[in-house]
UniProtKB/TrEMBL annotation:
It comes from Flavisphingopyxis soli. One of its GO terms (molecular function) is flavin adenine dinucleotide binding. This is NAD(P)/FAD-dependent oxidoreductase. InterPro entries: FAD-binding_MO, FAD/NAD-bd_sf, Flavin_mOase-like. It comes from the Bacteria. Keywords: FAD, Flavoprotein, Monooxygenase, NADP, Oxidoreductase. SUPFAM superfamilies: FAD/NAD(P)-binding domain.
Length: 500
């Protein structure tokens, strides 16, 4: 694969035109887009960890895999050619690293750079970004544009449900985010607390060797089985070039996903009945009714995807089961439930969710004054009102993350080129005073509701609405004029010259 012309890149200079934060799926994709669309721009990538891959390098729990198909989770510019559409974590990590290597990006990343602060200087039209390394040393770089591609989860501090009596449990209590390499669960009784994507991944994988694995959930989640391999995609690759086959499969999956989402919102009761029926056919209608019938409507929270019904197969084989109850407290040999029953366990896995954060948890300021993102409005799902030369990759909740990441990177390239054409060094979305604030995410998942107080807001009209709509975002971010009368283009009165 031939790499396109690369933007001038630096990891160790004092100044760059664009600083990309994060070398995961989003950050590597952003660098490829920047090199293609803005070859005149210098850039650097700062990564907090010591490896490329982001989420897919961090998470090492058993069975870790994608919760979206790789034909949409993969990059638009790089076909996914693996046989499995629902891919395992190591395969995804290899895909991201190969992309970085093939585009010459892997040699241009500064690792062990945890961004802790960024201050914008209006006089200079520059961000001064401060990072800390693992030894406590500080590193600074100045950039005209700051592009955060670090995701929206706090990877250092997951959500702690605060279970009573945790210290009383005699065995290990493990959070999937910090999975110990030497954890031996062969022949052990395991309780996995949670019912989200992580839990439904871990349970069938651990059940292969554990004595028994119980998924303990407070409330049910919608679980949908689909083939791990996409037969149409694999068939198309036999008769078409890889790029053509990938593009067709990508649009097929986007279209099917959009159809299902719209139908779920239009006819929630009917879709709910269908989903529960499918589970009933897989593991028995009594089990489906008791443990797989949520109280909320489909897509009020993200659906859990399982490949080839692996969770259902583990349940049918008697290697796994599901208990729906609440926790009273931990005891030495298990979990005491509110019903009074004791759920015996040798190992407890707390798949209780992650914690959201904005901008990787760094402190952001404008001319020394702290930025309160909760008081800003999302702009086109990319930037924020009143915050100049700043963007965040924020993926979809109802579709693959990378669909939005690709569009975000394309838009940033268009914005930077528009700024150059106008001779402007600053681009700032300006919100009018009559915009009514709404919650950033229309989602009832716990990790979202816990974060609403500090997340940015969306407005009651475009371009301040956060779309969960890939076709619409393609038009807005790829086709609509960058100059929309909302984003202001300016330059400091006394430009500061920088040697890139």
């Amino acid at each position: 694969m031939n790499a396109p012309a690369q933007a001038r890149s630096s990891s160790h200079t004092d100044y760059v035109d664009v600083l990309i934060v994060g070398a995961g799926l989003s950050g590597i994709g952003a660098a490829v887009h920047l090199g293609r669309d803005c070859p005149q721009k210098s850039y650097a990538i700062w990564e907090a960890r010591d490896a490329i891959g982001g989420t897919w390098d961090l998470f090492r729990y058993p069975g870790v895999r994608s919760d979206s198909d790789m034909h949409t989770l993969g990059y638009a510019f790089r076909p996914w050619v693996g046989d499995k559409a629902i891919a395992d974590g190591p395969s995804i990590r290899d895909y991201v690293r190969a992309t970085a290597r093939d585009h010459g990006i892997d040699q241009r990343i500064a690792f062990d750079r945890k961004v802790v602060a960024a201050d914008w200087s209006s006089a200079e039209a520059l961000w001064t970004v401060t990072a800390r390394d693992g030894d406590g040393g500080e590193h600074r770089i100045r950039a005209n544009f700051l592009f955060m591609c670090s995701g929206y989860y706090d990877y250092e501090n997951p959500y702690d449900a605060g279970f009573a009596g945790r210290a009383d449990f005699a065995g290990p209590v493990v959070h999937p985010q910090f999975w110990p390499e030497d954890l031996n669960y062969t022949g052990k009784r395991v309780v996995v607390i949670g019912s989200g994507a992580t839990a439904v991944t871990i349970v069938p994988e651990m059940a292969k060797t554990a004595a028994r694995v119980t998924m303990l959930q407070r409330s049910p989640t919608y679980v949908v089985s689909r083939p791990g391999a996409d037969a149409i995609a694999n068939g198309l690759r036999k008769i078409l070039p890889a790029r053509a086959a990938y593009a067709l499969t990508r649009w097929k999956n986007v279209t099917l996903g959009r159809f299902f989402f719209r139908r779920a919102r239009a006819k929630p009761a009917k879709v709910k009945a269908t989903l529960v029926k499918w589970v009933g056919e897989a593991i028995g209608h009594d089990t489906a009714a008791a443990h797989f019938t949520p109280t909320y409507n489909p897509w009020d929270q993200r659906l859990c995807l399982i490949p080839d019904g692996d969770l259902f197969e583990a349940i049918k084989a008697g290697k796994a089961d599901v208990v729906t109850d609440t926790i009273e407290h931990f005891e030495a040999d298990g979990i005491r439930l509110s019903s009074g029953d004791l759920l015996p366990a040798d190992i407890i896995v707390t798949a209780t969710g992650l914690r959201l954060q904005v901008g990787g948890g760094a402190d952001f300021s404008l001319d020394g004054a702290p930025i309160d993102f909760a008081k800003t409005f999302n702009y086109k799902g990319v930037m924020f009102s009143g915050v100049p030369n700043f963007a965040i990759t924020f993926g979809y909740t109802n579709a693959s993350w990378t669909l939005k990441a690709d569009l975000t990177s394309e838009y940033i390239g268009r914005l930077l080129n528009c700024m150059d054409a106008k001779g402007a060094r600053v681009a700032t979305p300006i919100a009018s005073s009559d915009i009514k604030p709404e919650a950033m995410l229309d989602f009832s998942s716990g990790y979202v509701t816990r974060a609403l107080d500090y997340l940015p807001k969306q407005g009651d009209r475009m371009p301040w609405k956060l779309n969960q709509n890939y076709p619409l975002d393609r038009k807005i971010l790829r086709k609509d004029p960058v100059e929309d009368g909302v984003i202001a283009f300016t330059s400091p009165k006394t430009p500061v010259e920088n040697a890139a």
